[in-house]
Amino acid sequence: MDLIKKNWEKVLLGVVLVGLLIAVVGLPIKIAGEKAELEGIRLGITERPVSEIEEPDVSSAKAVVERTQTRVTLDLTTSNRVFNPVPWKRSPSGQLLRVNTGNELGVGAIVVDSISPLYLIVTFDSVLTSDSGSRYAIGLEKQAEASKRARVKRQSYAAVGEKNDDFLLREVKGPVEMPTSIELELRDSQEQISISKDKPFTRVDGYMADLLYPPDNRRWEGKRVGDLIPIEREYYNIVAISKNEVVLSAPSGKKTSLKLNPGS
Question: Do the Cβ atoms of 216 and 202 come closer than 8 Å?
Fold first, then answer.
């Protein structure tokens, strides 16, 4: 004890030196542990699995953008009745008509009630036999002709190889006096056709139409291209008829197309 009391300063210094030695030896171990812990934290942040981000729902935003791109039109001439009151007109018959669309009177009010085809019909009618040979009666009915007289069926007699303004008789098949078919070439189209007693040839060459005008309760039947239609003190010329349309021309030259609308 007396030794310690006499040398306590040296003992204290030795204890301090031992502590410092322990600290110096343990410091690298502590640093390595801290580094390992920090590396674990880093890997936990950088190496963790990342889930795929779901695509956001932008449908409502797209709908808003599309609405902004749609042009808004205001009809202030036809359907609007605040600034444009509905006019009334009196027809030639004295009837008052409310004009909503502008087609209640005039050419726009015409209704195409029906359209019928007009045919070219070619028939084999009979055989005329004589000492000079056989001639064949061919009937032609041209329903689309302009004049009524030209529409009436007429017969033409021809032998094989003969031609007229309508056809060339090219060949007769079967017995001469009772052929099974006759081969013709039409002069207007160079079309090759075959006819027999029970099998005529038909071709659509035009159309005619039945028209209505409701404001005056008028009706025109069997109208053809070239016919005139009197409407509201003007005459409209039929310039074209197809299987579902009639085209009228005004005196000014303006054309109006009317679709087939049966039962209106």
Answer: no
Contact between 164 and 156 (Cβ < 8 Å): yes
Would residue 34 count as lying in a domain?
A: yes
Considering the chain, what percentage of its residues have pLDDT values greater than 90? 45
Do 174 and 129 have their domain in common?
yes
Amino acid type, 67: R
Answer yes or no: do 186 and 175 share one domain: yes
The whole-model pTM stands at 0.61
Total domains in the fold of the chain: 3
Rounded Cα distance, 168 and 256, in Å: 41
Give the DSSP H/E element, type plus range, for residue 9: helix 8-46
pLDDT in tens, 143-167: 999 888 999 999 999 999 999 999 9
The sheet carrying 201-213 orders its strands as 154-158, 133-142, 111-130, 201-213, 218-223
User: Residue 183 in contact with residue 171, Cβ under 8 Å?
Assistant: yes
Q: How far apart are CA 127 and CA 179, in angstroms?
A: 9
- Residue whose pair of structure tokens reads 């009524």 in the numeric block: 148
For residues 130 and 136, is the Cβ–Cβ distance under 8 A? no
Q: What share of the chain is helix, strand, coil (3-state, %, to 5)?
A: 25, 40, 35
Per-residue pLDDT tens digits for 81-116: 666 666 666 666 666 666 666 566 778 889 999 999
Query: How is residue 103 annotated by DSSP?
Result: -
